[in-house]
Amino acid sequence: MTRSVLVRPIRPSDFDAWKPLWDGYNAFYGRNDETALPSEVTDTTWQRFFDQGEPVFALVAESDGQLVALVHYLFHRSTTRIELTCYLQDLFTTPGQRGQGIGRALIEGVYQEARVAGIHRVYWHTQETNAAGRLLYDKVASHLGFIVYTHDA
Known about the structure:
The protein is α+β, with helices and mostly antiparallel strands. It has helices at residues 15-28, 39-49, 102-116, 131-140, and strands spanning 6-9, 56-63, 66-76, 85-93, 122-123. A hairpin with a 2-residue loop joins strand 2 (56-63) and strand 3.
């Protein structure tokens, strides 16, 4: 039986419950132990959620009073649209809570936040090997065939 899940904006008091989710997300992508993000990155990311001048936001999923998932997203300009675009950057559900619709609820929460902001495009990327995530993503969005390249200067 699926428990009731509340999707809500993150609160400053959520740090201690958010941090293990953030660490789990980063570990999923190989950023742990000696490859972990510097604490300065985590601290700055956290602060940005509550800075009115930053276009970076977070939603969390709460079940039975516990945070079980997170999603981070940001609004930015685009050269192909007049209105802003929404990039869904991070999505993570604790392993024991997966398959219960929480990831979908968080994605739909981002869709709603984008609509409220007058944004019509939400996009994200994931690793090809994220088979479980892609099963969900194929149901809630369209894969347009793009490949992501990156370069750190």
